Amino acid sequence: MARIQTDVLILGSGIAGLTLAIKTAKANPARRVLVLTKTVEGESNTRYAQGGVAAVWDKENDNYLKHVEDTLDAGDGLCKREVVEIVVQEGPQRVQELIEWGARFDKEKGSGSYDLAREGGHSEHRILHYKDLTGWEMQRTIMEEAQRYPNIEVLEHYFALDLITQHHLGRMVIRVTPGIECFGCYALNKQNHEIDTILSRVTVVCTGGAGQVYKSTTNPVIASGDGIAMTYRAKGRVENMEFVQFHPTSLYNPAGENPSFLVSEAVRGFGAILKSAEGEEFMHLYDERLSLAPRDIVARAIDSEMKKRGTDCMYLDCRHLDKAAFTAHFPTIYDKCLSQGIDPMKDLIPVVPACHYMCGGIWVDEHGRSSIMRLYAAGECSSTGLHGANRLASNSLLEAMVFAHRIYLDIQDKLEDWNFQDNVPDWNAEGTTDPKEMVLITQSIKELKDVMSYYVGIVRSNVRLKRALDRLFLLYQETEELYRNTTISPQLMELRNLITIAYLITRSAAHRRESRGLHFTTDYPDKLPFEEYSVL
Ligand code: FAD
Ligand code: SIN
After folding, report:
1. Which of 94, 205, 207 to mutate to test the pocket of ligand 1 (most atoms within 8 A of CB)?
2. What is the position in ligand 2's atom list of the atom closest to the CA of 134?
3. Which numbered ligand comes closest to the C-alpha of 159?
4. Confidence grade of residue 432 (pLDDT, cut at 50, 70, 90)
């Protein structure tokens, strides 16, 4: 059981975590920046991003106001306008930095300007991308850049378990306790199975999303909402959890696949059209923007058509598109379809909605500060006010970079004043034994995903949410019993975290007595007027 001290502790090595590490290490060569990551450094949601990063680049045709308006429109009344303006205006500088660190975004042949794509809800072409592997390219860039700084240490296979606060010093900490402070975290070293105490001047949660709470998700298996659950347990403020984004077009695989493979929205931006098995278009029944309407609308439309027709999927038609251009833009998607016996140039591509993105999360202010002192959050685990009730496509990578930068600026002058808290006890594992039956954990995870998928999916109702809460309570009790008596394992912690996430989504959904953005309930199909919903 090691005790480790670091000036800056960052949980997560995706775009948010590593961008922050690079900037902080560069500005403070004498400070130690420690990044924990629960598997390998390169495994993150970031790595799988396809479509790209939205930024106002083509100033002749596009401007900040248009990007702001598109973001507000998608967010359906719940975005914080000042945050939207910050992200839209500061975003292009952050993208430029990434380019200076070596990121390659596709350029147009001839003009040499960036080849800007368009996705659902965007009024202009403004998505910078690297083929359909933008996330892979961004993750590669930040990992290489981080290596240039000897004061950044990345500890792989380190699973952050719990944030350390006054609670661990024996004081009572409840949600309304003023001045809760974070002193670091306990983390499981998965290689020697020991739990280390990591003390820091400041801790930043960059642990990404929680898609694994649903049966079908585009998120990799690391996305179990650990940071959000840890912050909630530490009595930090978490918000907007009912707004879970389902991507309309994951590749339908009858055999099931975890994660589900994404067919990027950029494919629709490129001209693909949503159709039924019989080749009929249906999006005109739902929105005048057709296949390029915002995601909540398209996902609900597909869900509704599948239910009406009793089918397992709907389809994307790419057959009219130019093969050379299609394969150049979407080589990964093309190959993946072929591997499943689908030729996108000859066949319709079967698609279904899958859980994709968590719009809510750890509440933070415009500097990335959480409600707990010395604790910040950035990236998908945070709720900055940018996305409101529904995230606009390709705004997530942008938000993560903008907020990582803002956190780096905010902690600069404060590091010296925040001292290490030495009297934190080591993790206490007394009275626990190794789990006898791992199947208890794996089965509970399956049950949890079923509950969330059947009762708290794209369309909700009071009865479904009540059922979900009842079943979640049972799972919670059983899991807490296991937690009290069993030695810690990543699987057990992920189950515990996923139950917390499921509870937060379901409870927030039950609270919201209206339908807005990504939250749709048959009991309250309309939006409440502003005076009523703004206080929810
Ligand atoms: P991640 O990149 O998910 O990184 C989280 C990190 O935290 C990982 O390193 C993980 O190992 C670590 N971690 C988690 N829990 C723990 C723990 N307990 N202990 C230690 N480490 C932990 N967004 C866009 O803007 N444009 C796109 O084109 C786009 N396409 C997408 C396509 C797919 C298939 C997916 C899944 C998402 C896509 N998104 C896209 C969303 C975007 O990729 C993510 O929101 C973004 O990458 C999140 O970055 P992050 O740094 O917050 O988290
Ligand atoms: C996609 O490529 O469709 C995903 C884009 C995003 O999630 O922002």
Report:
1. 207
2. 2
3. 1
4. confident
Query: Regarding beta strands 158-164 and 273-275, do their DSSP bridges make them parallel or antiparallel, or are they unpaired?
Result: unpaired
**In angstroms, what is the span from residue 264 Cα to ligand 2's centroid?**
6
Active site annotation includes 295: yes
pLDDT band with cut points at 50, 70 and 90 for residue 536: very low
Q: Could you tell me which residues are beta bridge partners of residue 25?
A: none
Which of 295, 391, 496, 516 is catalytic? The answer is 295
Could you give the domains of the chain? 3-242+359-411 (3.50.50.60), 249-353 (3.90.700.10), 439-487+489-521 (1.20.58.100)
Residue 357 Cα to ligand 1 midpoint, Å, equals 9
Taking only the tens place, the pLDDT of each residue in 460-480 is 999 999 999 999 999 999 999
Q: What ligand 2 atom has the least distance to the C-alpha of 265?
A: 3
The pLDDT tens digits for 3-26 are 999 999 999 999 999 999 999 999
Q: What is the pTM of this model?
A: 0.97
**50 alpha carbon to ligand 2 midpoint, in Å?**
6
Name residues whose C-beta falls within 8 Å of residue 13's C-beta, 6 or more positions apart in sequence.
35, 37, 41, 42, 44, 143, 154, 206
The full DSSP string for 174-198 is -TT-TT-B--EEEEEETTTTEEEEE
Q: Which ligand is nearest to the CA of 39?
A: 1
Cα–Cα distance for residue pair 282/364, rounded to 1 Å:
39
**Which residue of 45, 330, 383, 497 sits with most ligand 1 atoms within 8 Å of its CB, as the best mutation to test the pocket?**
45
The per-residue pLDDT for 7 is 98
Radius of gyration, alpha carbons of the chain:
22
